[in-house]
Write a structure and sequence with these properties.
The protein is mainly alpha-helical and 188 residues long. It is built from 6 helices and 5 strands, in the order H-E-E-E-H-H-H-H-H-E-E. It has a 3-stranded antiparallel sheet with strand order 1-2-3, with no helix packed on it. Strands 4-5 form a two-stranded antiparallel ribbon. InterPro entries: Cyt_c_oxidase_su4, Cyt_c_oxidase_su4_fam, Cyt_c_oxidase_su4_sf.
Length: 188
């Protein structure tokens, strides 16, 4: 059964491998914002290594340079890319922003300040844990008897103390050092 599950899991992974324009939500560890990995290879220029060497686009501050451009270079962007090859001082601010948005989907500030909603998940998990622990406490209170064990009764503790004194346990610094064996009473 385990072998069959592993085969189906690997088959599922091969089916889930991003094809054209699918979107995968990913999270790397517990730190940093969640990010989206876009796989739109068709018509995108490969410009770097990216997150893991695959040709996909990812907005994340830890991996600032995606493997492919965010937008296809077509229409008005073709002329702008030709103008980009010349002197950058001739480009207006809007043209520079358009070129940036062609390469990147978000700025660093947008990536770091996006509201991921992760706090809702954390609060719900904490509340669920508290509810579960209170429910278990209630079950224990209802169904587990509250009788103390016999070893905690006064008679049993006195018998154990007498046995320790008779055995002269810890005669130098312990309980037997405080007992007067000639008078059969505690030392004063």
């Amino acid at each position: 059964m385990a072998g069959r599950a592993m085969i189906s899991l690997s088959a599922a992974r091969s089916l889930l491998k991003p094809q054209n324009s699918s979107v995968l939500a990913s999270r790397f560890g517990h730190e940093g914002p969640a990010f989206l990995v876009y796989d739109f290879k068709k018509g995108r220029e490969v410009v770097g290594f990216g997150v893991n060497g695959e040709e996909c686009y990812a907005d994340h501050p830890i991996f600032p340079y995606p493997a492919i451009r965010y937008k296809r270079i077509e229409g008005p962007l073709i002329a702008l890319k030709e103008k980009e090859k010349g002197d950058w001082k001739l480009l207006s601010k809007d043209e520079v922003k358009t070129l940036y948005r062609a390469s990147f989907g978000q700025t660093f500030v947008e990536m770091e300040n996006q509201n991921t909603g992760r706090w809702r998940q954390i609060v719900s998990q904490v509340l669920f844990g508290c509810s579960l622990s209170l429910f278990i406490f209630w079950l224990m209170d209802q169904y587990i008897p509250r009788e103390l064990p016999e070893t905690l009764s006064l008679e049993h503790r006195q018998k154990m103390l007498k046995a320790m004194i008779d055995a002269r346990m810890e005669g130098i610094t312990g309980i037997s050092s405080k007992w007067d064996y000639e008078k059969n009473d505690w030392k004063k």
